[in-house]
Write a structure and sequence with these properties.
Blueprint (H helix, E strand, L loop, with lengths): L6 E2 L4 E2 L4 E2 L4 E2 L4 E2 L4 E2 L4 E2 L4 E2 L4 E2 L4 E2 L4 E2 L3 E3 L4 E2 L4 E2 L18 E3 L4 E2 L4 E2 L3 E3 L4 E2 L4 E2 L7 E4 L4 E5 L7 E4 L2 E4 L5 E5 L2 E4 L3
Parallel strand pairs: 1-4, 2-5, 3-6, 4-7, 5-8, 6-9, 7-10, 8-11, 9-12, 10-13, 12-15, 13-16, 14-17, 15-18, 16-19, 17-20, 19-21
Antiparallel strand pairs: 21-22, 23-24, 24-25, 25-26
Length: about 190
């Protein structure tokens, strides 16, 4: 039985069976393959392809022209910018079948991948990390890291709200929401938990 809170544009193709959470919207010309799972309140932009086996958490925003291939998992509150690209095979060849050997990429909670960025599998994009527009991600991205370029390199840290963090004495502070972070050997952590 269809959930009335789910909105699917008439031009979208949704192959059954797939799971679509309450409040999710699927826009023009998008294609959802059987076996994909979308959490509640997701927004799937125009001309998006979601392969079998893909898992999107709650409140995932997928902008226009993104293809999400088998092996990709996006946790809650992830944003995938316009025309960004995932890969799922490191050494693709047309004449060498590798179906079933797809590698896994996990985008952790709250992370953002900017417009036209490319993520080379297998990767983990850490919680609340920010991948800049056009970046080519060839290594895992630490939580809260801001990475840019080709290949993507860390240039700073970002807050959960997305603003760049600034150093203030012995901690990093967000000038927008005032949240504080501690930089330790193991990574960046919100102060007090």
């Amino acid at each position: 039985m269809k959930d009335d809170s789910v909105s699917i544009h008439p031009t979208a193709v949704v192959e059954e069976p797939c799971e679509i959470g309450p409040g999710t919207r699927v826009w023009h010309y998008s294609h959802l393959m059987p076996g994909c799972r979308l959490g509640e309140s997701c927004n799937i932009g125009q001309n998006v392809f979601i392969a079998s086996g893909v898992v999107l958490g709650r409140n995932v925003k997928v902008q226009n022209n993104v293809s999400i291939y088998e092996g990709v998992v996006c946790e809650d509150d992830v944003l995938l910018g316009p025309s960004m690209v995932f890969t799922n095979i490191r050494t693709p060849r047309s004449h060498v079948p590798r179906k079933g050997k797809y590698e896994r990429t996990v985008v952790k909670r709250g992370a953002t991948i900017g417009a036209n960025a490319t993520v080379i599998c297998p990767r983990v994009i850490g919680e609340y990390a920010m991948v800049g527009a056009g970046a080519v991600v060839t290594h895992d991205v630490p939580p809260y890291a801001l990475v840019v370029g080709n290949p993507a390199r860390p240039i700073g840290w970002v807050c959960r709200c997305g603003a760049t963090l600034v150093m203030d004495r012995d901690m990093l502070i967000c000038n927008e929401c005032r949240e504080q972070y501690v930089l330790e050997e193991g990574g960046l952590y919100p102060r007090g938990g």
